[in-house]
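Running this now, will post back.
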Amino acid sequence: MASSSMLELAVNFGHRSLKRLTELNLNHQESAEELLWKRSEFTGLVPSGSVSAGGSCRLLPTIDGWCAVNLPREDDLELLPAWLGVEAQEEVPWESISDQLRTRPTDIVVRSGQELGLAISALPSGEEDEQLQFRGTANAARPWIVRRVGEQTGAKNVEDLRVVDLSSLWAGPLCARFLTVAGAHVTKIESISRPDGARCGNAEFFSWLHGGQSLKSVPFATADGVGHLKEIIANADVVIEGSRPRALDRLGIIPAEVVSNRPGMVWVSITAYGRCGPWCNWVGFGDDAAVAGGLVEQNVSGPSFVSDAIADPLTGMVAAALVAGAVAAGGGVTIDLALREVARSAARGAVVVW
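Update: finished.
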């Protein structure tokens, strides 16, 4: 674990989130640095320069900059011909992808990939980052958007909270784990046809994230399943989810409406690029979202990854602090939290204003 300026910024940023949890009387077990390397502790995998810890994401040069190409899903390979004209193979043809990217502008590479549903992001320069502020939150000290859409109630004890976790992978589940450790009743819900992708990863890490929780599978593809899901959500005090807006729209679930119908509820959406703006339906994961936020180490040979999917644990820590604060204030809010925005704030050394 070599220290770096960006890693130090990330650790400090995470530390402030954990300090906020302590101020709200939520006990936690690990330090910020431990959490940033937690998955590596189980897998033994760490990033190597321009290659992510898991190997699915790489930092590659374009004709005018750098981009992150993340291809963690089997279906991603089938989209390579449409994206770059690269022939699909059993394994990712990184050399062919790299050759193609060197001849193309970053903006076209990213936009064409995202239109196909690929997790491609651009590493912004300082000037570009300033120009792109309007697409996210303008204030790096508050990389989230809170909307009051329902009635407040009195503060609730964490031990009395009923939490529904619809999220997957790492950021949302880490938020749910903080609440579980603090005594909340957490139910993790997965789609029968599309379970949490983290199940395909390290089993011990998955168990660490979800230990002490109730696990439930629901058939999202059936009317009865959606009805059951809505019933579960309607009785929750906190909902954590990581779906792009159109996914919830297809299920007929509107977060603001749900919160407005249950006084004191807190709904936190954790996505790659936020629930509003022109990037709201873009795909992203911890490694590529960190690159989009500029959270990379700069070396003579080019940018390199700071830690394993670093935007995920950072965002999970922030989300837990926000949920705890919202519950203490009486709830009635939706929280829009984006991996890219959190990574950007950490990279800028922002001091969070809760």
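The chain has a mean pLDDT of 93. More later if anyone needs it.
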